[in-house]
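Chapter summary example: a protein plus GFB.
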Amino acid sequence: MYDLKGKRIWVAGHRGMVGSAVVRRLASENCTVLTAKRQEVDLTRQADVERFVADARPDAIVLAAAKVGGILANDTYPADFLYENLRIETSVFGAAHTNDVDRLLFLGSSCIYPRLAPQPIEEEALLTGPLEPTNQWYAIAKIAGIKLAQAFRKQHGRDYISAMPTNLYGPGDNFDLNSSHVLPALIRKAHEAKVAGAPTMTLWGTGTPRREFLHADDCADALVFLLKNYSDASHVNVGSGEDSPILELAQLVCEVVGFEGEITLDRSKPDGTPRKLMDSGILQAMGWSPRILLKEGLAATYEWYLSSARQEEIPVSAT
Ligand code: GFB
């Protein structure tokens, strides 16, 4: 439907886990990938973004830039998550429209849905109930992004679309224990416990919440698929179709990393939403499905963590 051949595609947020995966994926398309240097373009500043878009003249934009973080960061820095994300969105959508960029793919998150949405969660569940309190700030910003895409489509006929990925993981993830999502945190904790010969590693919360995971490269593949094949107002879920309790995930991570100690629970930390398994039926019916199995993806991500840890001189072996 939308031929990428010869097109100039700006990937906003190209240094992040998803943005860098989209850049890798677009390398096999016959298009020109544009990126903006952080020192030159502050995506929260409308004037910077207007100037960049006017100079770079993209045909399409993939808006993968966002202030992101795990449950604790979301809960601790509500203003940053709401305000920075709203600013990025208004800057990029505004600059796209002003400069006549007619195609834009906005990236959201599964936390846009009500805390207790029926599972698996269909696209139609949006705005049918109260949000999960720990990440409502980020969720509101992402809902605003969906609405911006729909509003520019309705009022100005712009071909702006939105994709809602489930919880993502992969190379380039954030492994900082205070701000990361659960999988990178578990990889790091299991690794450090193994290296230290510690008897235990700690999991936040009760271990009972269920989460669905998708590898960033699968997500990027789905995004490029949507960019090429989808044009409608409704946002589209992007998931793997499988979820499991956090405690089981922790056990799988320990197996991959080779940590044989015990897992203990820190119940002072929040659980967040009890479950968020997406219904990705619309995307699958269009012909897309994920390829990377969780265990294989985790092993590759652990390898990536070890190689980047070596560069930062984090201990990687017990010697
Ligand atoms: O990935 P995560 O931080 O975010 O946490 P959410 C998922 C689950 O893993 C929660 C538990 O139940 C956590 O309590 N968990 C266990 C841990 N141990 C750890 C740990 O060491 N670190 C972390 N981070 N979690 C995020 C939202 O929600 O999901 C974002 O806050 C975004 O806004 C993202 O939507 C996709 O899945 O709860």
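Key point: The two ends are 56 Å apart (CA to CA).
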